[in-house]
Amino acid sequence: MTVKLGDPLKMAPSYALLEGRGVLEIKGDDALPFLQGLITADVSKVGPERAVYGALLTPQGKYLFDFFVLRIGNAFYLESEKARLSELTKRLSLYKLRAKISIVDVTEVFRVFSFFGKGTLVKCKLAKEEGAARISEDGLFYVDPRTRAAGVRACIPGNTTFDVVDFMKTEESDYDRFRMMLGLPDGSRDLTPEKSTLLDYGFDELHGIDWEKGCYVGQEVTARMKNRGLSRKRLFPVTLEGISPSSGTSVRMGEREVGVLTSVDKEIGVALLQLDAISDGKILKAGEALLVPHRPEWMQF
Questions:
Q1: 3-state SS assignment for residue 255
Q2: Domain extent at residue 261
Q3: Which of 55, 61, 203, 279 is the most exposed place for a label (fewest CB within 10 A)?
Q4: What percent of the chain has pLDDT over 70?
């Protein structure tokens, strides 16, 4: 019997502290033009009522880092992988030159939370649109800019307490299963720095690339891939039946390798798969486990 993926939007309202996430503050007179010329998102759209999702690429258009971009007052904040914040700081500093900015790791100041499950946006008093944000005395709350199905994220000062009476406390691992059910990538766990390309991981559909903003590092290659339809892969949520393989296990269709399992938790995971391998009736395996891809609502071909 094939394992069912389940509906993440029917989960009980839950929240989790995302201990694997950190926050970088970029502040100064040149903060906006500095970021605007570097990353895939349009930073001019970020404000007290709007957050965006974006990435920093190599000049060859390969993935380096992805993050959520927030703004509080005259400072921008990048919420990204905590373990790689020092790398991100070094990379941004290469472009700093004479720009009047400071780049500071403020992870000790903010805690990052996710609120997810049924009715989350209403309970968090946010509009039902990606990136909608509000600042309160508790912190900054915003609808996940990738897809509103992912719920609400929050950057909350470490010494602040807040009311979570409508939500069940869960672990970061519970949120991780939730995001895998939605087919969302999790930074360098699913993308390979200096090798992966954004379009293979749904960054177009997930609002991680602003095609109208103009130049950024790696823009020409990324635009060429989109215009020529060069992306032939996608990251899919998958279910597994059998002995659960580890992340990094290749996915095969008969003798042919057609992808790789990038994240996994028991019977659920995400896998980067070639599009011609996901047609109905084709049998895919990861190790000894039967692998079944599922197409999330946000995904377009």
A1: coil
A2: 232-296
A3: 279
A4: 98
Mean of pLDDT values over 240-262: 96
**Among the three residues 176, 194, 213, which one is the final residue of a domain in this structure?**
176
Give the pLDDT band (50/70/90) at residue 278: confident
Does residue 44 form part of some domain? yes
Average pLDDT score over the chain: 94
**Concatenated DSSP letters of 224-244:** HHHHTT---EEEEEEEEESSP
pLDDT tens profile 17-26: 999 999 999 9
Cβ partners under 8 Å of residue 144, min gap 6: 53, 130, 150, 151, 152, 153
Tens of pLDDT, residue by residue over 38-93, are: 999 999 999 999 999 999 999 999 999 999 999 998 999 999 999 999 999 999 99
CB within 8 A of 280, min separation 6: which ones? none
Q: For residue 7, what are the contacts with CB-CB under 8 A and spacing of at least 6?
A: none
Same domain (yes/no): 18, 98: yes
Contact (Cβ atoms closer than 8 angstroms) between residue 203 and residue 300: no
Q: How many CB atoms lie within 10 A of CB 258?
A: 21
Cα 179 from Cα 250, distance rounded (Å): 21
- Locate 142 and state its tokens: 């915003």
Domain membership flag for residue 220: no
67 and 135, same domain (yes or no): yes
Q: What is the DSSP string of 144-182?
A: -SS-GGG-EEEEEETT-----TTSEE--HHHHHHHHHHT
CA dist 161 to 138, 139, 168, Å? 7, 10, 16
Is residue 257 included in any domain, yes or no? yes
Q: What is the pLDDT of residue 152?
A: 97
One domain, residues 156 and 267: no
Compute the radius of gyration of the chain from its Cα atoms: 19
How far apart (Å, rounded) are the C-alpha atoms in residues 207 and 245? 31
Same-domain pairing of 163 and 263: no
